Amino acid sequence: MVGARWAAVIVALAAGAAPRAAGFASVTREEAPPAPVVRPAAGGVDQGGGTPRPLPRIEPEAPDRALTLRANRVRVVIREQVAVVHVEHVLQSNVDRILQARYLLPLGARAHVTGYAIWEQGVRLEGELMDVARAEDLYRRVTEQEVAARPDASGVTHEAREVRVARDPGLMRQMSPDVFDTHVYPILPWALKQVEVTYGELVAARDGRCAWSFPFHLAAAFGEPVGEVVFDVTIEDAAGVQDVACPWPGARVEQEGGRARVRFEAGLVAGDVGPFELTWRQGLAPLQAAALAHRSGDGPGHVLVRVAAPPATAPDGAPLDVVLAVDASGSQRGPKASQQARVLAAVVDALRDDDRVARLAFDARPTAVDPAPAAVGDRRDALRTWPAGLTGKGRTLLAPALARAGALLGEPSPGRRRLIVLATDGVTEEEPDDVLAAARAVGARLLVIGSGHDDDPELLARLAEVTGGALWLPGLGERDLLWTVVPPDLLGRPYGEALVAGDEVAPGAALLDRFRDAAVTGVVLDDPSGTLVDVFAPAVVPAGGSIVFVARYAAPGERQVTFRARVDGQPVDAALTLSLPAVQEAHAFVAGLWARERARELLRRHPWGPRDPNRAEVVALSLEHRFLTPYTAFLSLPDAERRRMLLGARPPDRDPWRFESAATPEAETWALIALAVAAALLLERRRRAVPARAAA
User: Fold this and answer.
1) Best exposed site among 319, 414, 518, 567 by fewest CB in 10 Å?
2) Helix H segments across 144-238?
């Protein structure tokens, strides 16, 4: 997918001569290092068994480069906007010492690793999924090597260090919602080592056009051209595949009906060519829907539902109608209030003169300073300094404040977009569900500004998420809404240390520009019969994109459901008929997608760690449906090491993420048929004169 957060997988990341990262202490052993190995001749064939078949080496341009990327092969099947990606990286050692390599793989926010393997002595060592603590302990016991500490933030790391004992496991863990970490060991002197990773992800769409990308440009981290580059992408969609495009010179596109194939093969490709990108148009018209279902027995079934969202009512970059809603309760006194005031001043600085702003202070009751949003114009200084003059008193009630903010915004105005900037620590006596319901009812997106200390992070994150917004904590910047939002040591810091200097203190225009773009929010698939349970969907998608729901169903049969959403704040709905099969052995990946979304939901309810009450369920979902979580890890071990560690036989290979090769778009079962929803229905909704809500 295009965009940093939806990047596919970072290409190879282990590079030589980089300093050791924290947690990579040197390993001291009494054994003497192995004798130097004679360097192979230029272009010689590697016989070390670290690849499926012997491959000729490539000669690095820089003689001091410890590791180079011999091959980057990516094979992808994309069906109904679900991508399963298989990546092969072949690393080449250019030194006469044994190395351990570690690298991070940043994936998209809704991606999930489903397979991992390394090659040793000509044998593919499939990774076994197990509890992460057990995997880390076995890795240390086998290799006597340390594993890196979990990083606090995602990024690219380069690590290749000399070790003394050659054992041969591989370890892969999940470090954060979209970053995965692998240790590859050993990389023998002058040898090749193949690492394989399989992952799945949902492909995003905007204005009816899907986009998938692989950030090949990050291969430039090696400083050398990649010896062999292969991309082989198959796209299938029962709704049709049209206008496939790939900007890479030399890429071949073959297209027929509902299927397309894109292939690229070359040698010695530099990373500076940019990411490998594909775009295509899927055939669903606005408010049309289609689905795939899976049910293998008497238990619950799983269904994936795609709905094409309506187009936007205004172009991207529209001006904003904003309410600054600031918590002035007793818990906000002192440094917390001053920190929030500084962040709010930065928000005001990022506004445009044609934006309109109203102010609202609240504790147990909301008090509006302005009768309605008015143009920023020459009010900027007054808006900047206003929050600093508020004094904290009383208790906090968020639901009435959100309702009053919605009343100040009024109904959506043509050509404008609505935003509530909610500055609060989230500490309230209200039921969280009541607060979230109030946020949904407003129909505006929320930029939630925490205090950076002593917040209710789960409630703040949920407020941002259910409205398709963002969460900002002073001193910490924009926080990930998928897992824990506060570093675990934050509550132990003095207030002054919670705020740090730098860009993270001040959200700028780039963050506000996100709210200026057309978006679909508040998506719901309503089933009055209660057959659909645990329905998961993205909180926000681009207007004209595709909304992908995954859900369980309790019983087969036809069900009438209703799709509801807001496009630029305007309500839109469509009646749909859902046909749920009693038996459908194909599409097992749909059950895996649901399980992964369920695990994500559980992980964001509590900070992940040993005290997470949902840990057991997350692990069970991971092991049953084979995908990586922060509580599980893939460990690759040869049979000799398995016997030595008394681990028993290797479990049989199982790939629930495999697409059935016999299936074709024409043979796919369309489990969902949209009823005739005329465009006039949508236009009529937008023409209705809805009285503005009375001010509270």
Assistant:
1) 414
2) none
